[in-house]
Structure formats: C-alpha cells, structure tokens
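Title: Request for sanity check on Alpha/beta hydrolase prediction

Description:
We are preparing a figure and want to confirm that the structure record we downloaded matches what your pipeline produces today. Could someone re-run it with the sequence below and paste the raw structure tokens into this thread? We only need the token string, no images.
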Amino acid sequence: MRDALAGPGGARIRWVEIDGTEPVRVCVHGIGSQAAAYFTHAMSLPPAAGRRTLMMDLLGFGLSDRPADFGYRLEDHADAVAQALDSAGVSGVEAIGHSMGGAVMIVLASRRPDLVSRLIVAEAPLDPVPPPPPGNVGVTTFTEAEFAAGGMTQILDQVGPQWAATMRLADPIALHRSAFGLRAGTRPAVRQLLMALPIPRTFLVGALSTPLAGKQELEAAGVLVVTVPDAGHNIMLDNPHGFASEIAR
C-alpha cells in the first residue's frame, strides 16, 4: 500500500500498486466501492497485465483518509486525485474509472490535462443523478445527520452483500456528500466535459446494463463506445477478461 497527500489537514489518498511499465494506469472506483477489490483481478489478467497500475481509493472511501472538512463533490474528488498524483510525481496517466470514479476521472482530465493522456470510463454517470422516485429509499433521501445516525445501516441492508462489503468501509459523511455531488453534477455537465476532451476516450457499457443515453452524440464527438458482453454495471467483476481486453485495446 502507498499513499500521498491529497486533501485538507494532511489527508492522504492510499492505493494498492502493481509494478510494471509506463505509462502509469490509475484506476478509481465508484461510490461506496474500493479500488483494489474491484480492479485487481481484471488488471492482473494477461491482456492488461504488465503495466504499472495504481488502484486508488478516493478520500472518504476504502483505505484513504476521511477528512470532515472536505466537500466530496466530483470536482473535490478530482482535485484530490490530482494532488495525490502530483505528490506521487505521476503524470500523463491512463485514467480508468468505474461509475462515479469515471465521472471523477473525466473531471480530472478536464481540469488537469497534463495528468491524463488517455481516458477509459465504465458506466460513468454523465448527467446529474436524479433523486430516488417517490416511495424509494436512497442515500439522498436522508439528511446528513440522519444518514450518519442510522440511514447508512438501512442502505447497507438493501444494497446486497457484494456492494455492502465495500460500502461499509466508507465514511457515512463522505458517502452522503458524494451522493449529493452526483445529484448536483458539474457545470458544464460531465457529458459535455467528456465530449470536449482532445485525448483518446473510451466509454464501456455492460450489455446487461441500462442502455447508454446519447450514444450517437458521444460517438460523433470521437468517444469510442464499447459494449462489453456478459456484464452489467460492474463490468470488471462480471466479465473481467472482457474488461481487461478493452483496457489493453
């Protein structure tokens, strides 16, 4: 495990690293997840193996610190990853992000183009995430105090054992603020940021997942959209060989 300064009060981002050749690959997880748990298998398979890979936990999640005075918006997470990469002396990376981590990597590439040479996002939210429909319970149906006091326990009970295994490692405040950060999105929206980037960009969609909205618009902007078979939202877990092959390609 390695770490670098990344936030207020000396907060540190931590990651599990695989040795290999340059350029560096940096993998960032989705909300309530943890990078090594989601990426290690796929990134160790022959199509993707052999490259130096940093499987990095966002502040508030997994192994990283949990600063209370941190905003946890997409821009905040992106700036923290940038600070960690600067502290680690790493630039020009191949940025790989899943779900919320994909949105974070898009924002990172937009705000710090020197740090990202290529972008691969899997099932990233490109538009602000709407609140849960009436009658449904989600992270953003609670106030911050309610979520910390017992709402997180309720969410852990309903998300299923796989997601709960990593979500329970998250700081409740970080999880709550990150969920509201996804609801707020960015300005311009993450979708517009992705289309405007001048670097190679790949968007991975699970064949069993929700169809990608605005696919033709993304492709017209030069984004390579790839459907990975036998996979839902968690592509690297559902079809690690397919995910590794697309990373290598």
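Thanks, this matches our download. The chain has one domain: 2-130+172-248.
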